[in-house]
Structures are given as structure tokens and as C-alpha cells.
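Practice record 12: protein with adenosine monophosphate.
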Amino acid sequence: MRWASTKAEVPTPFPVFRDVPPLREVRKKMFREGKEVGFVATMGALHEGHLSLVKHALQENTDVFVSIFVNPTQFAAHEDLDSYPKTWEEDLQKLKQVQDEHAASAGPNAKSKIKGIFAPTVKVMYPTLPPSSDIAGNGSFVTITPLGNQLEGSSRPIFFRGVATVCTKLFNIIQADRVYFGQKDIQQSVVIKRMVKDFHIPTEVRVIPTSRESDGLAMSSRNVYLGERRREDAVVLSKALFAARDLYNSGEVSGKKIRDAAYNVFGQESQLRRKDGKLGGSCQIEIDYIALSEPQNMAMIPDFAKVDPSQGAILSAAVYVQPVDEPRTEKEVGQRVVRLIDNVILEPREKAL
Ligand code: AMP
């Protein structure tokens, strides 16, 4: 393994690219050599979910680039841009371990490697204007509507503009044959697929299943904000989605009944029954939305409609986990609201007529 150096001369297990021209040089050579390039975009604070995308990318390509960039334009002013977890050293070690394990495997692409980490500055990614987090702000932006305005986009109006803009930039820089996104952020993957199609971006979008903790909670860089007691309560989100999926799998197609099955879990969890009638155990949990949508365009399936079993559906949800009611430690005193999202796919189970 070659150990390259960053500017600060700290040895890193992979070449780290801070700017575009050196990466372009490497990429040009790779085109000539006929390499197959996979790309995983991340904001760092890597966990098994991110690593699973990298593993898939290593299996399907000769070389992989991973970006680590906390993109300011997808955070609204009140969101957690400044406190977003940063774990650079650990991230690189985790990636090295994934690569080492991949190299030791007997798979057909065992020689594939992580070619480099793209970790640009904000100025490199937004060379002209300081990036705006204001929906009316100036800048060069990519918008994908109406897809980007519904569900997550309705709760976070700036979000998908920021994601589509930064991914366009990243795709132009890396020029990957395949890009890897997680099902965890399913609407994001649908937006990216639409963007790739509508802008004729020459890459294939691969969507990789959600990695979960052993109790079902979807892995997320933001889970570290929860702390122990809220972490226990948070499992209700995946439980609710799984219950609704079980009902669909048992033959139910009514939109209302499927969504109700998810709502009922929030209501029934005895640990979450509160005196004030609101949801939550150690803390209050507010449901932002529980939505059924069509798989291709995320169009809402209303309560009075049925899921078309030949198409299946996506059931997605978002909750706000409030700080604990009665803090017991200093950490708990400083808790902030954590927004969690998750989804399950209701798989097609009949052939289309
Ligand atoms: P982020 O760093 O949160 O922007 O995520 C980078 C990529 O990792 C996105 O494509 C996410 O969908 C994906 N990802 C995040 N969490 C998970 C997870 N639990 N399972 C699979 N993919 C994930």
C-alpha cells in the first residue's frame, strides 16, 4: 500500500486530492488505460452504510474514488452544518480496512482499489460565489422539480437543490462509470437518477440497500447525536416501517391501512406511551411524515388509493427526536433535536397486466 501525503505532510493510506486539476490528470490517464471507475460521495463520519457502498463499488469497478465533503448548500441556516461530525482519521482507516479486506477476498475484482479520496475545500467546489443556503440566493444551482420539492424537499426546501448541485459538480470532476448511493436516502437516489437521465450524464446510478444496526435502526452519521436513551427510543421508526411492510407482504394494498400500520406502532409502543398523549419515551418523538409513494417518481399514493402490486411502492418516514424530557447528564443537557429518516421498499409481487 502506498502512503501519500497531504499538504500537512500527515501520511494517509490513499492519495488525497484537495483540488480538481491533479485529479483530472489521474483520471485522464485512467481513461486511456480503460479503467472502470466507481464513485461514492459522502460527507464523512463514515459508518457501515457508507462502507457498504464502497464495497459494492470495489466489486464492480477496477478503481474507486470516495469524496468526503460536507456540502454547505444542502444545509439550511438553522441546520447542523457547523456541528456535523468530522472524523477524518477514522474515516481513512475504515476505508483502508475495507480495501484490505477486499484485496484478501477471492472475488473477480480483488485487485480493485481505492484510487483516491477527493476532499475539496468549499472554495474549490464553489469557485465563483460564496454558496448560498437561501432558497432565493444567487449561485449556479441544479434543481430537479417537482421531485425535489416533495417529502424531504417539503420539510427541507434547500436540500435537494444543494444535493443535485454538488453531485453535478462531483460527477463532472470524477467522471465515474458508476456512482453508488444508499437506499437509506431513497428520495435522493431518485433525484440523482432523474438528474443523470435529464442532463445526459454518462454514468450508471447504483442504489445499495440500507445498512442497519442489529435492532433495525438505519445507520446514519447523525445517530451519534442521539445519546443512549434517545437511541433506544429511536428504534420505533424502523419498527413502524417494518410492520407496515409486513402488512403489505401479507396481501394488503390499501394505502390507508398500510400507513396506519406504521402509525399504530408509534401509538402502541408501551415504552413510548406518555402522560400527555404525545409520542416518545425518554423524549418526545414527532412524526414529520409517513408517506407512501410510487417507486419511479415518488408521486404520493393517497390514503383512498391502493398500492399497485405489480409496481410496489416506497414507504418513507421522517421523525423529529426532541431532547430528553429530564436530562441526567451534561451531554443530555446540551442535546439538540435530531431528525431521522428511513424507508422500506414494498416490492412488486405480481406481474403487470
Ligand atoms: P452522507 O454521508 O450522509 O451524505 O451519505 C453518503 C451516502 O451514503 C449516501 O448515498 C447515503 O444514502 C449513503 N448511506 C448513508 N447511510 C446509509 C445506510 N445506513 N445504508 C446504506 N447507505 C447509506
